[in-house]
Amino acid sequence: MHKTSRLAALLVAGAIISVPALAQNKPYATVNGQPIPQQVYDAFIAEQKAQGAPDNPELQSAVREELIRRELLAQEAKKKGLDKKGTVPGQVELAKQAVLIRAYLSEHVRANPITEERLKAEYEGIKANLGSTEYKARHVLVEKEDDAKAIIAKLEKGEKFSELAKQSKDPGSRDTGGELGWNSPAAYVKPFGDALTKLKKGEYTKAPVKSDFGYHVIQLDDSRPSTPPPYDQVKQQLQQRAGQQQIEQLVKDLRAKAKIN
User: Fold this and answer.
1) What is the pLDDT of residue 52?
2) Is there a domain that residue 104 lies in?
3) What is the structure's pLDDT at 26?
4) Please, what is the average pLDDT of the chain?
5) Which CATH number do you get for residue 159?
6) What is the pTM of this model?
7) Half-sphere exposure of 49 (CA within 13 A, CB side)
8) Do residues 210 and 145 touch, judged by C-beta distance below 8 A?
9) Is 240 strand, coil or helix?
10) Which of 36, 104, 222, 230 could covalently link to 136 via disulfide, CB atoms 3.0 to 4.6 Å apart?
């Protein structure tokens, strides 16, 4: 296959939405008298460059062929009235919305950059929340308090925790003796985390611990000092998290000011 043809085929997967041409927008090309706006070509080229494609004659030729191909298919679809059929009009509007939203959010993020100070403050806050100790625990989760009390009674008689864990409602741990691995107390719901920190190595809770999931019997296998990853290692995740929070706050503020019926 010719290089240009291969590149054109790859461009089929590229996501670019054609927008109506402005009156002053110079046509890039025409297909059956229908203009392809220059801004559509420019947007397609920009999209490919953003994905790492070099802006050279080969790319420009491939983009031209792809835009013509799309215009031909779109014209045929309109001849059959598909642009007004079923959910197609709604899908077109959703696609336009998606492009506008992406542009707006990109501009908002550029205008309100997340500072290094904020990221470091987030990092320190997470470290403080995790605490200085992590725990290796196991548990049995049951629906009724009496069932949890019965498990504790069996533990008092010397039955093995790992065997009793087989009746747990937690599918992720019941087949491994109730083991939960190493975690900070903050990784669990508060009643569980609070109970865990009060145990000594080898101890189990003498009373059922109630949470939204049911009743727990918890045993502490071991504990050790917590060693959080260094800031530079998690900076990217912190950046993503802060970006999501920024957008959520933006939407929350807009909604608070909006008139919605």
Assistant:
1) 93
2) no
3) 77
4) 89
5) 3.10.50.40
6) 0.60
7) 9
8) yes
9) helix
10) 222
Q: Tell me if residue 52 falls in helix, strand or coil.
A: coil
Band (6; pLDDT cuts 50, 70, 90): very low
Size (the chain), residues: 261
Closest by CA to 37, choosing from 73, 63, 67, is 67
Please compute the mean of the pLDDT values over residues 170-176 and round it to a whole number: 94
Residue 61 within any structural domain of the chain: yes
Contacts of 156 (CB under 8 A, 6+ apart): none
Percent of the chain with pLDDT over 90: 85
Residues 147 and 217 in one domain: yes
Domain of 28 in residue numbering reads as: 3-80
Q: What is the pLDDT of residues 105-119, one digit of tens each?
A: 999 999 999 999 999
Q: How many domains does the chain have?
A: 2
Residues 217 and 139 in one domain: yes
Backbone angles phi, psi at 103, to 5 degrees: -65, -40
Estimate to the nearest angstrom the gap between the alpha carbon of 68 and the chain centroid: 36
In the DSSP assignment, the letter for residue 87 is T
Residue 163 φ/ψ, nearest 5 degrees: -75, -40
For residue 103, with 0-12 CB atoms within 10 Å meaning exposed, 13-18 middle and 19 or more buried, which class applies?
A: exposed
> Is residue 206 included in any domain, yes or no?
yes
